[in-house]
Amino acid sequence: MKGEGAAAALRQLPTGVCLLGILTARAEPYASTVSWVVPLSFEPPMLGVALEPRSKTLALVRAMGDFAISVPRAESRSDVIKLGRSSAEVADKMAGVTLGTTDGGLPIVAGAAGWLACRVVGEQRVGDHVLVIAEVGAGWVADGTAPPAWSYWGGSG
Amino acid sequence: MKGEGAAAALRQLPTGVCLLGILTARAEPYASTVSWVVPLSFEPPMLGVALEPRSKTLALVRAMGDFAISVPRAESRSDVIKLGRSSAEVADKMAGVTLGTTDGGLPIVAGAAGWLACRVVGEQRVGDHVLVIAEVGAGWVADGTAPPAWSYWGGSG
Fold it and tell me: Does the domain formed by A16-141 have CATH 2.40.440.10?
């Protein structure tokens, strides 16, 4: 009962939802919806993303080192839901999804409200996930993106 | 220019906004607004919160070990903004703020939509912040809390 409450509350913790985009060794775009993403440092700019140990996403992140985190607009809802499925369960979850790219060619959600180009600098096993720590080398925010689209409190504090 | 873009995009990454509540050694309630919070594991339930190295919040978290993360409703906006100020800048930022408590007596935002009672299990310096890693021992979610109040995509994926 106690553990149940903890897990239920953890599932309801407010988080953003982003797309993690990466190029495979064959330069094919791959993307996955991630919601356990957190800024970790301003100087240097760094963020963390917690991934499932056996996920294709973590395997690619480890193998390639460079990935993009992009922020979807509401219009991309169906793609975000589609890309949230596990590759283990869906033969080709990228089918029918059109992605954009960062300046450096990393895959991002189409019509992104913003993106961050990241390079892995470390990882740490935490419970049943792996926290990947990355430095942000470049970033972009769409003009006129209203704060409420990004965060519960919209940076009003 | 490149670094500027990275920092700007990092500031716009969608995150939730929570209250971190803790009891001082004299059992006085203290609370601070935090937005760099992230779930890290379901089994065991764990989360991370990145704090400023010289903040009173980190000093208290290190000294006491137990803290609560609570999720505010929109009605608590003014308290959340007030508690987002630095203790170094405001003599007594707790003045005029009424808090609730977890089952275990840790401070939470009044009328919380949910809370998680956490115990520190580790920390890691990441850039200019310290990532505190904690296990969630207990949690609670208010009945009828609509998912959109919590997260950008509301768990619809």
Answer: no
